[in-house]
Amino acid sequence: MSPQPQAAVGAPLSRVDGRLKVTGEALYSAEHDVDGAVHAVIVDSGIGRGRITSIDARAALAHPGVLRVISHRNTPELPYRDNSGSNNPPGRRLRVFQDDRVLFHGQPVAVVVATTLEAAQHGASLVKIRYDDEQPSTDLTKAEPGESTTYARGDADAAVRDAAVSLDLTYRTARNHHNPMEPHATIARWDGGRLTVWDKTQWVVGTQTELAAVFGLEMGAVRVISPFVGGGFGTGLRCWPHVVVAALAARETQRPVKLVLSRKQMYLGTGFRPSYEYRLRLGSDRRGRLTAAVHEMDAETSSYEQFTEGVLAAGQMLYSMPHVRQAYRTVPLDVNTPIWMRGPGFQTASFVIESAMDELAHELGVDPIELRIRNEPSEDEAKGVPFSTRRLRECFTVGAREFGWHRRNPRPRSRRDGDWLIGMGMATGVYDTVRAPAQARARLEADGTAVVEAASSDMGPGTYTSQAQVAADALGLTMRTVTFRLGDSRYPATPPHGGSMTMASVGSAVLDACDRLRRQAVILAIEDEESPLFGVAADDVVVRGGRLHVQGDPARGETYQRLLTRNNRSHLEAEGSFAPPSGPERHSFYAYNATFAEVAVDATLGLVRVRRILGVYDAGRIISPKLADSQALGGMVGGIGTALLEHTVTDHRDGRIVNANLADYLVPVNADIPDLKAIYLDGEDREADPLGVKGLGEVVMIGVAPAIANAVFNATGRRIRELPITAEALL
Ligand code: MOS
């Protein structure tokens, strides 16, 4: 087929759903008006580990409006079929109200259903539960490690020992919670044996699969609807217990049930970025050529599931070296199960590796960018295949120039501005280009408009807009005549909306569906004696503004509308799909960045203020530059949070999270956000996927924390190897 002119892709368009969002017309999960819905409020366990010995629901049931109190005492056995189709990690998932065990502080142990929210809330406070409690184990540094994942090439321990220069550094990173603006919420309704849920989720298909497994239903008997998601960062990647609670409560009361987690409950049952203790030993020669690295890390998981994330890849492929050994141990604790959070795994690994590279550069007296260039690999040394695209050198060059890196004095504490010590730092970021099978459907109406559908989600990156851009160009329509629909399990199946895979995966399926649809229209025209395109070769026809014409001869053609009407066709429809090639990969796929930060540190108070951040991205083709900027700047804000503020604190005496709210869990506010700038290297990655994208949502956050930590060192001469970097640590 002749390549379609690209008008929408690459244009800095505003969100097509922006108006709906700012006028409140976009409906989030709890806002759907479901007739006859009653309210459910979860009762959380008051202990960190043990057994429930009694539940006294009399006072709650006596409260006006309370309909039911449901707990393990009155819940029938639920099927809980095994399910590998919805991001459940290995282990035995938490089974809602199936026994008397308490596995972590704040576990759902009962639910109160009432006719009003207030009655349900008050009812929940009246449920009296007694426990037989045991001492929970929640301290990563004091617990026994469980499973481990390892990797080795060469003999890294010997090589580090024999290296001309070696470093032995231990880093700690805090537990982080996603804290999206919109809390998790579910409305569940049963119609006979069929279940419909309106749910905050990043994966309608995953939630559908899990609810079918839990309740023993056919997939087709469960429908999940989620047209708008008010932020996610990964918390919506699993179907958490509260979704099952809502569906169970609806089944037991025979009423539609609405359940909204409180801000506190957002910390109790919906996952988090696990904390790590990460020891890195590096060996290099005197010129800064790395010879070896030994990575040993412990990370939190729950006692009942073994959660792991991609924390190993960066250490295997980011820099060239013959010897690498890695051991990644998960430590089972009496906590709920972690989940991926923006830039999962790579974010943590990058903080450690990039901080250590800065230490090595300082030790050797080599510029940090120069050190990285000296260790650029010519291929992926773990997989033994070339990189599809890897343009880190350009990221460094462009970034150094735009940021004014030459103004950095490598000697710490050499720049001052009044009370403030000024420093500059940089780091590299890398994230996997994830692609997964996806499907889409496109339909062209006789009036010349089109509707494209895929299950997907849009947690904020602007999926409605970017997919419509792809569809508009492939169909030769304007943005106004294309509608993209998502967030419904009835639409063609898509992978999780996370891991930066949506544009590559869903976008490629949308492209395929629209290409097939356009082709149908073209064939209809060239085989129609009444069409001005009759007899033209299909490859010579392009479509622009809803009009098919001969390439190079715009006068010869007709509109979709005319073509379909004359042929008595109400519509044309096509299905499309995408799947990454199977078998061993012939290339190694990653997105990269160089991130630069300038900070000011109060010399007496230890306060850190970020002054500037610049990110330069090698992320393949940029479909939607304005949305890309929203992703990049948002990622930098997330990075500032991780670097300086975010820290979920557990009281190890009873396993309680002490700052389970948005006042004590610190996140950046406007005053914390300085001048942020994003630059994208032009180009595309044709090996990765038909759209040429490498994924952007994760890589923009990775590199920010180490760039800030390295800038803090340049400002103060102090190495802080623990996130977040606090004023206390700098005093
Ligand atoms: Mo994210 S961890 O890509 O939702």
UniProtKB/TrEMBL annotation:
Domain Aldehyde oxidase/xanthine dehydrogenase a/b hammerhead: start-end pairs: 23-135
Record's protein name: Xanthine dehydrogenase family protein molybdopterin-binding subunit
Keyword tags: Molybdenum, Oxidoreductase
Keyword Oxidoreductase applies: yes
Entry annotated with the keyword Oxidoreductase: yes
InterPro entries assigned: Ald_Oxase/Xan_DH_a/b (IPR000674), Ald_Oxase/Xan_DH_a/b_sf (IPR036856), Ald_Oxase/xanthine_DH-like (IPR016208), AldOxase/xan_DH_MoCoBD1 (IPR008274), AldOxase/xan_DH_MoCoBD2 (IPR046867), AldOxase/xan_DH_Mopterin-bd_sf (IPR037165)
Signal sequence segment: none
Source lineage: Bacteria, Bacillati, Actinomycetota, Actinomycetes, Kitasatosporales
Pfam name, any one: Ald_Xan_dh_C
